[in-house]
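Bench notes, afternoon.
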Amino acid sequence: MVMKNKINTIIFDLGGVLVDWNPKYVYRKVFNDDEEKMQWFLNTVCTSDWNMQQDEGRTIEEAVNLKIAEFPKYEEWIRLYYKEWHRMFSGSINENVTLFKKLKATNSYKIYALTNWSAEKWELALELFPFFNEFDGIVVSGQEKTRKPHLKIYKTLFNRYHIIPEKAIFIDDNKENIIAAKQLNLNGIHYTNYAQLLQRLEFYKIIF
């Protein structure tokens, strides 16, 4: 087991850890706050699994066309998904971004990001959240044509930035992604809230 004082690298997930993204922020308005109708649409039409294929490299045009062919009566709402994608953010998760900046300022760790994100929306993401440019490096799933929790994307991160997994910690709000990381000996923190994150970083003797 890695000695806790040997950690030299911290890897952040973005959505759900540093920024709050949820299609409900758009579709609540579309469905006039009818939670049942909104939930049906997001569970049946523009589903999370469908969106993840764009994170894995499928083009938005292809994805939208496939979904319209499957649900032609909902074309307008389907097209809205990526047309209004930028409105699916409530903003940064401020306490976690402050933590990220404190860790960066120590100069004690290399700080990277590993994110499931459509390649076509990445430039806009950098405009929306300029602090993304402050990482020492980022691996974006849509650009790599693979995504978490597939092991290939973790290996891409390790190889590109010369990361020793035993000396790194990965923070992600998706437990499945943490389980995959641990298969490669990457220390993982399944993020649930700020207090829990601080506690886990303290366990690893992270200084900030």
